[in-house]
Design brief:
binds pyridoxal-5'-phosphate; three-stranded antiparallel sheet; six-stranded mixed sheet
Length: 296
């Protein structure tokens, strides 16, 4: 709802258009809510492997500043950082700055889907306020890497936030006595960096360990593991990503490692692992031993 209400607040006039990556969460996982509920027209940009776009494509797809009555009006560009579908990749600061500059030159706003922006911040060493400095708004999930049970934040100018609050209410997101949930969010935020750092180090180690298995069934590019996610590839038709996920969720009596591991199948016959604050170092080591017993 953070993204939906943000897009609705930025595209306040009928007939407006938002540009989103074709692998973005907003485009893939939100039921097309910005069109379905927000009445906002969508234009897609090709998401590259690292979560960025080709700037030339962006420029070419922006509508003329004074569109004829045939065309929608480009009002907003959305970025995502870290990028979920790309396996938790972190956007380079320079890319964000360039997008913001070219958007703002044309009177277009920039919204950051920062569901995992603290992960991006920990990875890059750049404070969140620096990452989103040029952006017009940001949404942040407290319940992802940050580790709170529930909640999201939207930040932007006060005029923007008043619109977001109207949108949130009409979308059914108004909550009474929500302070108790917000308190959990504050605790999570105050302690997030240290836990996220651990998630990243463990993800790195797990990726390297899987890489070192030199398996024909499961491969990984450890260099693409930047935050708390790992994407595994399944090059052999003998062993698919679905078979792997099913096996990881199964505990047999004869298994050396009596542990159930949850993972998601991912597009492109891949599997996504996500590390989080409820896992200990032993849990991850145990998951690795289970992978090892399956991969060889
Ligand atoms: C979970 C997630 C969201 C959902 O945001 P809400 O404000 O909680 O609706 C948005 N974007 C990404 C990348 C996510 O992973």
């Amino acid at each position: 709802m953070g993204n939906l209400s943000s897009v609705m607040a930025h595209c306040w006039t009928r007939g407006q258009e938002v540009m989103v990556g074709d692998q973005s969460h907003i485009f893939v996982y939100e039921q097309g809510g910005i069109s379905q509920l927000g009445g906002v027209h969508v234009s897609t940009l090709t998401t590259r492997e690292d979560g960025t776009f080709d700037l030339e494509q962006v420029v070419n797809k922006i509508r003329s500043p004074d569109p004829s009555c045939h065309e929608p009006q480009t009002a907003l560009i959305c970025l995502e950082n870290s990028h979920n579908r790309c396996g938790g990749r972190v956007l380079p600061l320079l890319f964000i700055q360039k997008i913001c500059a070219l958007a703002h030159n044309r009177g277009i706003k920039v919204h950051m889907d920062g569901a995992r922006i603290v992960n991006a911040s920990v990875q890059s060493g750049i404070p969140v306020n620096e990452i989103v400095k040029e952006c017009d708004s940001v949404s942040i999930c407290l319940s992802k890497g940050i580790g709170a049970p529930v909640g999201s934040i939207v930040a932007g100018s006060s005029e923007f936030i008043s619109r977001v609050m109207r949108c949130r209410k009409v979308l059914g997101g108004g909550m009474r006595q929500a302070g108790v949930l917000a308190a959990a969010g504050l605790v999570a935020l105050a302690t997030a960096r240290e836990r996220i750092q651990k998630d990243h180090l463990r993800a790195q180690k797990l990726a390297q360990d899987i890489y070192n298995l030199n398996s024909d069934l499961i491969t990984i590019n450890p260099d693409a593991v930047e935050t708390n996610m790992l994407l595994l590839n399944f090059p052999s038709s003998r062993f698919t990503s679905q078979q792997f996920v099913d096996r990881m969720a199964l505990v047999k009596e004869e298994d050396p490692e009596q542990v159930l591991v949850k993972a998601s199948t991912w597009f492109g016959n891949r599997v996504r692992f996500v590390l989080h604050s409820d896992l200990s170092e032993d849990d991850v080591a145990s998951a690795f031993r289970k992978i090892q017993s399956i991969a060889v």
